[in-house]
């Protein structure tokens, strides 16, 4: 494709450029090889979403090439023709030097669509998450986690989604499977915003059937076409039926429990913190909160009442509406118990006084969704 007035705006997202170099650079006019632009649009790949790319070349003398090669960070790219935005994405990490037909050396690189770079992020860092909502809300949550903008013109899918996802699963895998099961594919418009396209696999009216007379034999070799139809005489499908319970005891601290203290009798020294697993001094707690690598302890919700008739040993997949029951022998002891996504709780108890005090009850109740049974 030949562009009449091309320009490429590069935004360097890393912090490793030289101080005198701008994080936003624009390549125009002779900096770009005008006849080198090749747009590769691939909406579908086996009825699944596929990425789009733009291949192009930059003339050797352009100063932005040095920063493109040197930086380790992502480079956001917007390609324009005049004021019209043609493509928004990220520069590929693959590039090469090429000789043109006139013997000039140019820098060959491509722009990948936004999803190629951003959707590879994990949806959650740890634990599990349950989607139990309209598909449009699930799509919005996935895109927010990945840093993807959903277009205002994106189709709203009202179908309900019930799905559990584990930590480490990428936003791309979750989104692609969700859309595939609903009969849609995703793509990114020229602004880099997510849009959705409906796949109509039901209508076959007007499709032409090829017969033997449509093929020509050349040199004694013929072209053969075959189509396999997959048939199932029987199929066994297993799934987990979900159940619900309200105001269910999902956590109970029994530290120091005895005849005189039926719940717990946990001691917290002056300034100490408790996160559900460990006790920290005030200095240790402060050090943890400023450490960028520190992760909060996640406490898994359980059948804390040992009730067997309803939930029993069934796996709890999600909790909501957490209510705590906290009792101590001094007002200097405070506690918060909150939901942390999926079946997990986050706990923080603190003794702000100058003497040791005791926690005599630390319980949490919540509305739960649990795996009721496996059906076939």
Verbal overview:
The protein has helices at residues 64-70, 114-118, 135-146, 171-182, 282-290, and strands spanning 6-12, 24-28, 38-40, 53-59, 75-81, 84-91, 96-99, 105-113, 128-134, 160-166, 184-188, 194-198, 239-252, 266-268, 273-274, 279-280, 299-300, 316-328, 333-339, 344-351, 357-375. The protein is mostly beta strands. Strands 1, 2, 3, 4, 5, 6, 7 and 8 form an eight-stranded antiparallel sheet that branches. Strands 15, 16, 17, 19 and 20 form a five-stranded antiparallel sheet that branches. Helix 3 runs antiparallel to helix 4. The radius of gyration is 29 Å and the shape is flat.
Layout of strands and helices, then pairs:
Blueprint: E1 6-12, E2 24-28, E3 38-40, E4 53-59, H1 64-70, E5 75-81, E6 84-91, E7 96-99, E8 105-113, H2 114-118, E9 128-134, H3 135-146, E10 160-166, H4 171-182, E11 184-188, E12 194-198, E13 239-252, E14 266-268, E15 273-274, E16 279-280, H5 282-290, E17 299-300, E18 316-328, E19 333-339, E20 344-351, E21 357-375
Antiparallel strand pairs: 1-2, 1-5, 3-4, 4-8, 5-6, 6-8, 7-8, 9-10, 11-12, 13-21, 14-21, 15-16, 15-20, 17-20, 18-21, 19-20
Helix pairs in contact: 3-4
